[in-house]
Amino acid sequence: MQLQNDLLLRAARGEKTERTPVWLMRQAGRILPEYRAVRESVSGFIELAQTPELAAEVTIQPVDILGVDAAIIFSDILVIPEAMGLPYEMVEKRGPWFPQTVRSESDLKKLRVADGDNDLKYVIDAIQITKKHLNGRVPLIGFAGAPWTIFAYMVEGSGSKTFSKSREMLYREPVFSHKLLQLITDSTINYLKAQIRAGADLVQIFDSWAGILGPKQYEEFSLRYITQICDAITEAPKTVFAKGAFFARESMSKLSCETIGLDWNMGIEESRRLIGPTKTLQGNLDPAALYGNPDQIRQATIEMMEQFKGSRHIANLGHGVYPDIDPEMVKIFIQTVKDFQ
Ligand SMILES: Cc1c2[nH]c(c1CCC(=O)O)Cc1[nH]c(c(CCC(=O)O)c1C)Cc1[nH]c(c(CCC(=O)O)c1C)Cc1[nH]c(c(C)c1CCC(=O)O)C2
Q: Which residue in the list 10, 19, 30, 197 is annotated as catalytic?
């Protein structure tokens, strides 16, 4: 199916575009009252994510309501541990929780490599339904967590400020750590390939906990596996977003991906210098800037756009949109990007 708006894909490949494409990380769910209405019709996040028709509906809401240039499939990075044999729960107001964790060789033996098509059939179905309903209006983004970020949740069993149990593992059990990271990587490659076969036009890897590792450990326990994923996925453009990994920007320029996501702590001009001209950069307005008034939002967005100007860029926030942001303020951000010359 020919896309009517393929700005995102052309910008990712480094082709010239009439204007800069814009979307928001975590645009599906979180901020829209229309999302909450659908969410209340089911038992919770997991049921919603596992009901393909509903997942497709909330995936498309931001395209209709906010006017973004891409949809991102409604799911979560934690579907991978579940498909490997480690189920999770989403605890209201607290976030993800794993009844069991993975901390020993015997825990490891209970896990399997996820195959994507069967183990995550509900996501694959949701992608196919979304593509049908989108009818070529905008590209659909598929995604997965980076192996290190998934490892951190599987070892820790929940979110954490320090992820000290996961980081302890890297120091005390490096061999075990590499085995688990490889299992996650193999599962992620299968999963991303299945998403692309089902219709995902571009895939993004979220390394949300990149910033808690030092530079040397980041190379060994994260970038090594992201490299494997980028090398294995040749069917669609790839974006790597490593939150807090300012120290790895130069290394990341060597990844075989088209786009690198910047968080809002990363200077735009400095990032371009470190990463070079051959990658598209995505980002990176401070998500808290959307708490400002309309004039402040316009000004902050224009300042950001001016710093990216003339180089390969996909506009976004520097992390996911915060849940209590007013959708009207998101629309101002989007419109300002669209009007920018
Ligand atoms: C670390 C991480 C997670 N999930 C994700 C990340 C990486 C991005 C980031 O750093 O923000 C990624 C994610 N999670 C979700 C999406 C859907 C698509 C999108 O809107 O971008 C995506 C891309 C839905 C979701 N994932 C979750 C919700 C809220 C569930 C609900 O409706 O109650 C949604 C819509 C739950 C979730 N899932 C996770 C946490 C910590 C939580 C609880 C807090 C929160 O809301 O962020 C893990």
A: 30
> Of 26, 137, 197, 224, which is the active-site residue?
26
Q: Where are the beta strands (DSSP E) in 264-303?
A: 280-285
Amino acid at 283: G
Atom 15 of ligand 1 has which residue's CA nearest to it?
A: 76
- Take residue 212 and report the two structure tokens written for it: 């808690």
Q: In the chain, what are the domain boundaries?
A: 7-287+312-324
**188/162 Cα distance (integer angstroms):** 24
- Whether domain 7-287+312-324 has CATH 3.40.309.10: the reply is no
Please report the atom of ligand 1 found closest to the CA of residue 49. Answer: 24
The residue among 60, 40, 39 whose CA lies nearest residue 49 is 39
Q: Is 249 among the residues known to form the active site?
A: no
CA of 186 to the centre of ligand 1 (A): 22
30 is catalytic: yes
Q: How many CB atoms lie within 10 A of CB 235?
A: 13
Report the nearest atom of ligand 1 relative to the CA of 24.
21
Tell me the CA–centroid distance for residue 76 and ligand 1, in Å: 6
pTM: predicted TM-score of the whole model, two decimal places:
0.97
Catalytic residue at 39? yes
State residue 136's pLDDT score: 98
ipTM: 0.94
Residue pLDDT, tens place only, 319-335: 999 999 999 999 999 99
DSSP letter at 212 equals G
Q: How confident is the model at residue 15 (pLDDT cuts 50, 70, 90)?
A: very high
